Amino acid sequence: MSSKGKVIPLARAGQTAPCDRCGELCKVAATRNTEAQMLRAADRPKGNCVNCAVAEWFVVSGLRETTDPQSLLSPAVHKPFEAVMRHARSDASATEIRWDRVVQNWSLPFVVGYTPTGKPKKKTFPVFDMEQWVDRLHRTGRGAPGGGYADATFSDRLAEHLRSSPKNDAN
Ligand SMILES: [Zn+2]
Questions:
Q1: What pTM did the predictor assign?
Q2: Could you write out the DSSP letters of every residue in the chain?
Q3: How far is CA 141 from CA 68, 99, 130, 155, in A?
Q4: Are 114 and 121 in contact (CB under 8 A)?
Q5: For residue 28, how far is its CA from the centre of ligand 1 (angstroms)?
Q6: Torsion over CA of 138, 140, 145 and 148, rounded to 10 degrees?
Q7: Cα(23) to centroid(ligand 1), Å
Q8: How many angstroms does the Cα of residue 124 sit away from the middle of ligand 1?
Q9: What distance in angstroms lies between residue 52's CA and the mean position of ligand 1's atoms?
Q10: Which is it for strands 25-27 and 16-18: parallel, antiparallel or unpaired?
Q11: Distance, CA 148 to ligand 1 centroid (Å)?
């Protein structure tokens, strides 16, 4: 059923264009894997740079709203992400990803299409907001004995974050 795919050369290799989202200069890769399921190399000078493609992966996989972007700087996140990349035959390699840029640009909107005249249509997706999540978890937990969190991992991570965060004292 699934195969390792075929690595094919790209005719437009080396052609450059600014990233649709952050504007960083990108180059068309030399090759791509026909079976790549994530971080696919574009065959023309158009689209997202690898860092914006990583951010987009979090949108597509539904994890964006629950991901604290600062946590993406941790090697504890990079290792499993690399395992997912290998499994999905990613065209990008782990060493290409600049996690600091992924985090820095986390709030930028994504280009989701083009108008008939070729102008990019941009869309902003929800961004992790600790305050909002604390509110939601409080509402979810209300009246439910022992909590009622659907996602133990997330609530554990949230608790850890709250313990390690400096208090936001109004002054
Ligand atoms: Zn970019």
A1: 0.77
A2: ------EEE-TTTT-EEE-TTT--EEE--SEEETT--SSPPPSSS-S--HHHHHHHHHHHTT-GGG--GGGGGSHHHHHHHHHHHHHTT-SS-GGG--HHHHHHTTTS-EEEEE-TTSPEEEEPPP---HHHHHHHHHHHHTTSTT---S-HHHHHHHHHHHHHSPP----
A3: 21, 33, 16, 11
A4: yes
A5: 14
A6: -120
A7: 6
A8: 14
A9: 4
A10: antiparallel
A11: 38
Tokens 């600091």 belong to residue: 100
pLDDT digits (tens, 9 = 90+) for 22-55: 999 999 999 999 999 999 999 999 999 999 999 9
| 156's tokens | 């554990």
Ligand 1: centre distance to CA 1 (Å)? 33
Pair of tokens at residue 110:
């994504």
Q: Are strands 31-33 and 16-18 parallel, antiparallel or unpaired?
A: unpaired
Q: What are the tokens at 11?
A: 């005719």
Cα of 136 vs centre of ligand 1, distance in Å, is 31
Per-residue model confidence as pLDDT tens digits over 101-126: 999 999 999 998 889 998 889 999 88
